[in-house]
Structure formats: structure tokens, C-alpha cells
Design a protein that fits this description.
Helix content is about 45%, strand content about 15%. The chain has about 220 residues and is of the alpha/beta class. It folds into 2 domains: about 160 residues, Rossmann fold; about 45 residues, no CATH class. Strand 5 and strand 6 form a beta hairpin.
């Protein structure tokens, strides 16, 4: 069996004009998980990211200098676009500025998106699910035994829920649990694909490491 290790990107810049930039903490988290993999002598045979800057910069800060393959199916869904579509361009200020309200509203919005309850989004949930599945096939169509991927919470939640045969709502419930730079591991061989480990973050399980923990 081969391993597919998917790492969520480091903390990005919530509340800033450009979310797609790692914060200083995000770079620290990335260095920590990269150091852990080297300590465990877990050396990837293949590197893949989405096309987002925060994903590529996470891999770079992990200490892997090889040029990764890129698959846009590993990109996050556009949460700003979903909120704008749901609220018809008039997103309440509290949703924009208050972290707790933002993520509660985002959860509700994704559930409505899954049900096609509003129009105007640039991507349907069905389209998102299809491209994530295409990315899964791409990452596992290989002779490599250790595939390292950097992606985002929604993609990881989607791939995990499908692997578990869970209802579609579980995608978002998992999405909101995933720590920055946490590791989710799948085992694969041919058509066999199964979840082995979800949202693991041993690099945060020390007093020093605990100070690096974040979810967004």
C-alpha cells in the first residue's frame, strides 16, 4: 500500500485584503511540520500542491525545495464568492469582521450551497466535488509510495467524507475541525483508497508546539 499524506496549509491572513498569504505563524507552523517529517525520516517520492500561494508557500517553508506538481482540483472553494452569492453582494459587516460569526455563517452557507439553495456562485458544489475527486485520482495515479500534498480544509474535508462514505454535510463538519498544517493520511493501491489518519498534529503536542496551534 502507498501513502497519500495531505497537509492543510499554514495559517493565512484572515481579515486582510488578501487571504492567500501565509501569516508569520503560518510559516512557523509549516517549518514545524516539515521538521517533524524529517525527524521521522518520512521522505516523499512525489510533491503536489494546488495553485494557491498559501499552499505553495507552506510547502516551501516546510523545507521542500523541489518544484511541486500543481493540480487546481486541490484549491479551496471560494468562500468569499459563496457569501457574496448567498447575500447577493451585501454581506453583513459582522460576518466580515467577527471570526465566530464568520465561520458560523460560512458553515450555514456551505450547507445551502450543497443544496443549491442560492444561485450566482462561480462554482457549484457538484463541480467542487468533481474536481476534488479528479485531484484524488491524479495524486494516486502513480508508482510513488509516499505522496505529499498541500491543500486546504474544504478539499480535505470533502476527500475524507467521501472516503468514509459519509453524508455530504460531513464535509463541512470536518472542514471546520482541521488545524493549520495538520496531517490527513490515506492508504491506496489500485482502486483501493481508505482513510488512515485524520487531522493529526503531533508537532503541536508539546508546550512550545501548542503555541503554534490555529484553525484559520
Amino acid at each position: 500500500m502507498a501513502e497519500l499524506l495531505i497537509i492543510r496549509h499554514g495559517q493565512a491572513s484572515f481579515g486582510q485584503d488578501n487571504y492567500d498569504v501565509l501569516s508569520d505563524l503560518g510559516h512557523e507552523q509549516s517549518r514545524a511540520v516539515g521538521a517533524l517529517l524529517r525527524e521521522l525520516e518520512w521522505v516523499p517520492d512525489r510533491l503536489i500542491t494546488g495553485s494557491l500561494k498559501r499552499q505553495k508557500d507552506t510547502l516551501s517553508s516546510m523545507g521542500f525545495d523541489q518544484m511541486p506538481e500543481v493540480h487546481e482540483g486541490l484549491n479551496e472553494y471560494d468562500f468569499d464568492d459563496l457569501l457574496n452569492a448567498r447575500f447577493k453582494g451585501d454581506v453583513p459587516d459582522l460576518v466580515k469582521g467577527d471570526r465566530k460569526t464568520h465561520f458560523r455563517t460560512l458553515r450555514e452557507t456551505v450547507f445551502e450551497w450543497q443544496d443549491a439553495a442560492f444561485a450566482g456562485a462561480s462554482e457549484t458544489y457538484a463541480g467542487f466535488a468533481q474536481r476534488v475527486e479528479a485531484a484524488r485520482v491524479f495524486t494516486t495515479d502513480t508508482n510513488a509510495k509516499r505522496v505529499l500534498v498541500v491543500s486546504s480544509g474544504g478539499v480535505i474535508g470533502q476527500m475524507t467524507s467521501v472516503a468514509m462514505g459519509a453524508p455530504k454535510r460531513q464535509m463541512m463538519n470536518l472542514n471546520l475541525q482541521i488545524k493549520n498544517t495538520a496531517m490527513t493520511r490515506f492508504m491506496f493501491s489500485g482502486r483501493s483508497f481508505s482513510l488512515h489518519e485524520f487531522n493529526a498534529a503531533p508537532h503541536f503536542m508539546t508546550p512550545v508546539g501548542a503555541e503554534l496551534l490555529s484553525y484559520s
